[in-house]
């Protein structure tokens, strides 16, 4: 009985201790690990860089997770990651928030991404102007026959608002880069949780149109040729066309670190910007910032 | 000398058990306080009426518009659809399992239905997206199959286990004498089941429906994958909708902590909390009524 009593007491003490301890689970950001978080567009890229870097430096471990550019910035601000991968520039509101939490985000451009506008391969349309694109995605053009296609209602597929791709597309295609623009995605636009979800819907729907990074285009979807206006030539989203700036919808991809990168984070970013790092960019169908 | 140690021991154990009993209540309270704290700051910049009845949800525009009427309508439509599908099937299977099925069939059916509850919602959503979506598109000749109906069907499957197992318990709990008396009076088996058993088990069955619906309205992942997430006020069940839960899940990652979008999502959380609280409250009232009746007889 006495022994049993002691066991009970002991258990009680341990349980209470655990309850108290559970409040202290903060991440220890130092040691040999780098946390990378952010853009879903860049998550494969980050993973590929991380794998090669870890092979070259076996003592380092790097964890790469997605969730969206906003997610990455939020965790950089909350100090739960070392590098945020972001497929748009940081917003003023975010920079202020970071400053108020004593975080100093430093921007590093690591690659370029062409955004492909995709339709089902059975769709007869193969090229559109920026004006037409803007009108389709904002809901002014509702039927494919208005741009020379079949008499079918256009189904607009967009990414969710936590996606840097969504923001970029709104600012540069719908609003044509005009920061005072008021164009919005049509309320009928279907907001899909991932690029893959858009690809899946495009594959089985001949009246759908969507957009995502050109690295995601497969044979089940057709990338459209895009022109700045009806007097300009139409361009396919290929690596050459993005690099020489003729394809009109491309954007820079960034990494943000807290303060100028130091130690391991600096090593990693130097590697990303090296020839080897940029080789990986090419391999994953993104566009390197330099050759 | 043994006595005080025993007393202390019992005292400590009693308090620990009390603590565990209180934990969930305290956590619920803390969650609610947290929701209120984060969500209410929104109403400094926008009125409650504009929030609940606004028709435009453009959270990242400048200035942002936080009208959640399309989201509320979306949640209600999907939930109603799921209820219409799952209630008849759920009650039907509960009656069959409890009243008619032979023992062996009953065991197989019960296990099967419980297995359905074990499938993760993301898997159900994925299957719905790949199979249901093209089916509905072709069946109704729509431009896309990502509609409220797809969400309703997917969610009906997720509500079914809850409805069936709780309703089945309620039916099994109806005293044997009721059935015997009815049959002795010359009632057929169907008459007994319909008029006597179903009637006596009604409070429990209503509780089952309410809990099933509570599960549906709070479900996020499956619904986000199959409903298209377009924030428009739906005019039919064959249109895409965006639900309250999907909005929170899809947008939380983007928000700046403490910003107005962040507060708006927490305010949606408050709305959801109130809705599920009401549904569970109603279910609880019926469950208690059932218990009282049971003890009286």
Model description:
The complex is a heterodimer of chains A (291) and B (297). Chain A is α/β, with parallel strands linked by helices. Chain A is 36% helix and 21% strand. Chain A has 2 domains: 31-112 and 252-283, Periplasmic binding protein-like II (D-Maltodextrin-Binding Protein, domain 2, 3-Layer(aba) Sandwich); 114-250, D-Maltodextrin-Binding Protein, domain 2 (3-Layer(aba) Sandwich), CATH 3.40.190.10. The radius of gyration of chain A is 23 Å and the shape is globular. The N and C termini of chain A lie far apart (77 Å). Residues 19-29 of chain A have low confidence and may be disordered. Chain B has a single domain, classed as Orthogonal Bundle (MetI-like fold). In chain B, a hairpin with a 6-residue loop joins strand 1 (57-58) and strand 2. By secondary structure, chain B is mainly alpha-helical. The mean pLDDT of chain B is 88. In chain B, 76% of the residues lie in helices and 1% in strands. Chain B has helices spanning 2-39, 48-53, 69-100, 103-118, 121-139, 148-172, 176-184, 189-200, 202-218, 221-226, 244-251, 260-296, and strands at 57-58, 65-66. At the A-B interface, helix 1, helix 3, helix 4, strand 7 and helix 7 of A face helix 1 and helix 5 of B.
